[in-house]
């Protein structure tokens, strides 16, 4: 077996089926592929059942506590010398596999490859923002790769000891940063994927960022934190504190302090928004960019605080 695709899955199947069809449509050059779905669902739809019967697809039932655990379980069933980890809501370009293998061959020091993100049809402003942020660095070595599509050799996975099962989120930061200590991480524009489940509505994004932030602090343990990552830990709680200061001061009638808090809140929001506006260009209005960071930072701070409190509670009862 040449390549094993490993996909953790839970919930509805529409996007999973789109992911599977994109894999089955890949240009393979007669490579042997297998697809392993590690699913928390108790049953399959008729369409998935028929597809798994006619194609090299295996469905492993596993009620994993984290995505990392489900990915690691998938590897125990995999036979491929290469491993492709996908989320259950991505559609790969037809040349994805060829580009992954060619990049590995042409860049001997590369241990991990990922394709760049492209927008889906009729993408709303938030999806355009997310895509632009994902593609801030392209065709170069990076210190982190998002976990939606990762390609590596099996022996690299073995050396890394698998994904960090103790993390609910941020597992891709932890895993790929550790991989960067073995060799190069390469983010290529030669192949692409559409993130079918990308954030499209700001309110939904706010709630998701709270969830995503819960493992921020836990992900620090056991890895070196690059200088460029420190703002992601410092800025969100600082901005949340300023926002609370603004609201509380206004409620107490301390208008000068409230205005100062609001000014200090919007200074970093404006700085980040200016950088992002340069990435998205004219395709996204400045108002939508400002709205993104005005919601993103407080949500991440709430998630980080929530995760820290859960860890303290778990530790105190351990």
Characterise this structure.
GO terms for molecular function: glycosyltransferase activity. This is Glycosyltransferase family 2 protein. Keywords: Glycosyltransferase, Membrane, Transferase, Transmembrane, Transmembrane helix. Belongs to the glycosyltransferase 2 family. It holds the Pfam family Glycos_transf_2. The radius of gyration is 21 Å and the shape is elongated. A 5-stranded mixed β-sheet has the order 3-2-1-4-8. The longest helix has 31 residues. The protein has 2 domains: 195 residues, Alpha-Beta Complex (Spore Coat Polysaccharide Biosynthesis Protein SpsA, Chain A); 90 residues, no CATH class. The chain has 11 helices and 9 strands. The chain is of the alpha/beta class and 318 residues long. The C terminus is likely disordered.
Give the tags.
Spore Coat Polysaccharide Biosynthesis Protein SpsA, Chain A, 318 residues, alpha/beta, 11 helices, 5-stranded mixed sheet, 4-stranded mixed sheet
How do you describe this structure in short?
The protein has 318 residues and is of the alpha/beta class.
Percentage of residues in strands: 15-25%
Spatial extent as radius of gyration? 21 Å
How many structural domains can be distinguished in the coordinates? 2
- Architecture of the largest domain, CATH level 2? Alpha-Beta Complex
Major sheet: arrangement of strands: 3-2-1-4-8
Q: Helicity range of the residues? A: 40-55%
Helix count, DSSP H or I runs of 4 or more residues: 11
**Biggest sheet record:** 5 strands, mixed
Structural class: alpha/beta
Poorly predicted segments: 312-318
User: And the CATH topology of the largest domain?
Assistant: Spore Coat Polysaccharide Biosynthesis Protein SpsA, Chain A
CATH class of the largest domain: Alpha Beta
Write the H/E string, N to C. Answer: EHEHEHEEHEHEEHHEHHHH
> What does the oligomeric state look like here?
single chain
Q: What's the overall average pLDDT, rounded? A: 90
CATH superfamily of the largest domain: Spore Coat Polysaccharide Biosynthesis Protein SpsA, Chain A
Kindly state the number of beta strands.
9
Pfam families: Glycos_transf_2
Protein name: Glycosyltransferase family 2 protein
Family: Belongs to the glycosyltransferase 2 family.
GO molecular function: glycosyltransferase activity
């Amino acid at each position: 077996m040449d390549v094993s695709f490993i996909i953790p899955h839970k919930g509805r199947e529409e996007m999973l089926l789109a992911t599977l069809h994109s894999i089955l449509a890949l240009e393979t050059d007669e490579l042997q592929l297998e697809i392993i779905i590690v699913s928390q669902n108790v049953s399959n739809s008729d369409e998935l059942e028929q597809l798994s019967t006619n194609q090299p697809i295996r469905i492993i039932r596993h009620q994993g506590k984290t995505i990392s655990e489900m990915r690691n379980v998938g590897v125990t069933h995999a036979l491929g010398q290469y491993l492709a980890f996908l989320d259950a809501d991505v559609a790969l370009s037809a040349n994805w596999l060829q580009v992954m293998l060619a990049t590995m061959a042409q860049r001997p020091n590369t241990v991990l490859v990922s394709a760049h993100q492209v927008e889906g049809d009729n993408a709303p402003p938030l999806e355009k923002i997310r895509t632009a942020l994902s593609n801030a660095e392209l065709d170069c070595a990076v210190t982190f790769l998002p976990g939606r599509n990762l390609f590596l050799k099996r022996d690299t996975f073995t050396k890394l000891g698998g994904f960090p099962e103790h993390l609910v989120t941020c597992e891709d930061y932890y895993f790929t940063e550790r991989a960067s200590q073995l060799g190069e991480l390469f983010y290529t524009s030669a192949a692409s994927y559409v993130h079918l489940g990308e954030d499209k509505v700001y309110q939904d994004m706010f709630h998701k960022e709270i969830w995503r932030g819960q493992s921020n602090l836990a992900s620090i343990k056991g890895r070196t934190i690059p200088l460029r990552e420190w703002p992601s830990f410092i800025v969100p709680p600082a901005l949340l504190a300023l926002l609370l200061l603004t609201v509380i001061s206004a409620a107490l009638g301390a208008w000068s302090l409230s205005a100062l808090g609001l000014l200090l809140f919007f200074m970093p929001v404006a700085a980040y928004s200016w950088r992002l506006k340069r990435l998205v260009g004219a395709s996204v209005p400045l108002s939508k960019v400002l709205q993104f960071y005005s919601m993103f930072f407080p949500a991440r701070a709430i998630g980080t605080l929530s995760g820290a409190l859960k860890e303290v509670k778990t530790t105190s009862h351990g």
